[in-house]
Amino acid sequence: DSGVTQTPKHLITATGQRVTLRCSPRSGDLSVYWYQQSLDQGLQFLIQYYNGEERAKGNILERFSAQQFPDLHSELNLSSLELGDSALYFCASSAPGADSPLHFGNGTRLTVT
Amino acid sequence: GNSVTQMEGPVTLSEEAFLTINCTYTATGYPSLFWYVQYPGEGLQLLLKATKADDKGSNKGFEATYRKETTSFHLEKGSVQVSDSAVYFCALRAAGAGSYQLTFGKGTKLSVIP
After folding, report:
1. Which of A4, A30, A100, A110 would give a disulfide with A105, using CB separation of 3.0 to 4.6 Å?
2. Which residues of B touch A107 (CB under 8 A)?
3. Of A48, A99, A100, the CB nearest to B101
């Protein structure tokens, strides 16, 4: 058990809809990262938060947004969903410093129909 | 920018065979290097790490040595088991624009047959 909790495990929704994915980081970790895993693109970094502030942006679409709350949990909001957004979305957390590994949750599998 | 290249799979081995999965990287500065494993239907788990040149990471019989001169971090195991069947990801973590996100290779799927 990594200590990172993601909900829900599965999400099925229709095109054009909006969903929210939730992540609780490991106790004590201030950084939260969101990744998208799809068959054709592999693991793509979306966005990072550190202690409530956005720290870095990767390949995140404008239709997607995220935030980290004072209790350090994070939410990833996906709107105007398209078929191509179907993927596994992972949250990870870490302690500060490049030596510290990222610890991943089990992911949310999003299916857009 | 940072990038990781790992050998394409899938790799199919018989039980007790020797495993090597090649990984090379490009990064500015001195990255930390990681191998993650993803079992079917699960998230990514840290397998091992190395944080400086010539460090050897090891776990569960897997090993990888941080080779700065060849910018490589190849994963090896002397005798694989059926339970090692999974997807293996090489990754690096380096500072850039104030962030320490992981950059992943595309993953190598390993199947071990009895």
Report:
1. A4
2. 43
3. A48
Mutate which of B73, B99, B103, B104 to test chain A, going by most A C-beta atoms within 10 A?
B99
CB contact under 8 A, B102 and A45: yes
What is the residue-averaged pLDDT of chain B? Answer: 92
A42 contacts B46? CB cut-off 8 A:
no
> Taking the alpha carbons of B10, B38, A79, A14 in that order, is the dihedral positive or negative?
positive
- Residue-wise pLDDT tens digits, B54-94: 999 999 999 999 999 999 999 999 999 999 999 999 999 87
Pick from A63, A56, A64, A65: nearest CA to B103? A56
Looking at residue B95, what is its pLDDT? 67
Distance CA(B24)–CA(B56), nearest Å, equals: 15
pLDDT at A42 over 90: no
Residue written as token pair 């939410």: A75
Residues of chain A in contact with residue B106, where contact means CB-CB under 8 angstroms, are 42
**What CA–CA distance (Å, rounded) separates A47 from A43?**
12
SS (H, E, C) A90-110: EEEEECCCCCCCCEECCCEEE
Residue-wise over B71-96: b if at least 16 C-beta within 10 A, else e? bbbbbebeebeeebbbbbbbbbbbbb
